[in-house]
Amino acid sequence: MYALRQEQTNYTASSTASRKQPPLVDPAVIRAAGQIYYTHCEVHPEIVGQPSGVAINRVTHRGKVIFTNQPVLLPQECFVPLSQIESYMY
After folding, report:
1. How far apart are CA 73 and CA 19, in angstroms?
2. How confident is the model over 53-78, as pLDDT tens digits?
3. Is residue 9 part of a domain?
4. Total number of domains constituting the chain
5. Could you tell me the strand order of the sheet in which 63-66 lies?
6. Which stretches does UniProt call biased (Polar residues) (predicted)?
7. Mean of the pLDDT values across residues 32-51?
8. How much of the chain, in percent, has pLDDT values that exceed 90?
9. Domain extent for 30
């Protein structure tokens, strides 16, 4: 019985460590988020501030640039951080 408890403890510790990794996002969604972000930068060069990423609908690929760290998403939306957009483009 002790071995079983120890195994559960190790499993719990490893599952919490895997939560720190960002979730995988479809490459097509990342590309669409990049287009939304770069279009926003071209159309609104006067806006000061660093966006945190893009909230994008996984089905329609429509989205918005987000400036907050904790975005509120609709059920079909996902958040693509700016770091992921920039690393995918290069």
Report:
1. 19
2. 999 999 999 999 999 988 999 999 99
3. no
4. 1
5. 63-66, 53-57, 77-81
6. 1-19
7. 93
8. 58
9. 24-89
CA-to-CA dists, residue 18 to 11, 12, 13, 27, 30, angstroms: 11, 10, 9, 21, 22
* 28, amino acid identity: A
Q: How far is CA 50 from CA 26, 67, 69, 71, in A?
A: 24, 7, 11, 14
In sequence order, which residues have a C-beta less than 8 Å from that of residue 4 and are 6 or more positions away? Answer: none
Residue found under tokens 């958040």: 79
Q: Is the pLDDT score of 44 beyond 80? A: yes
How is residue 18 annotated by DSSP?
H
- Tokens, residue 88: 């995918």
How far apart are the two ends of the chain, measured CA to CA in Å?
52
Q: Please state, in angstroms and rounded to a whole number, the distance separating the CA atoms of residues 25 and 66.
A: 17
Rounded Cα distance between 27 and 41, Å, is 21
For residues 63 and 33, the answer to whether their CB atoms sit within 8 Å is yes
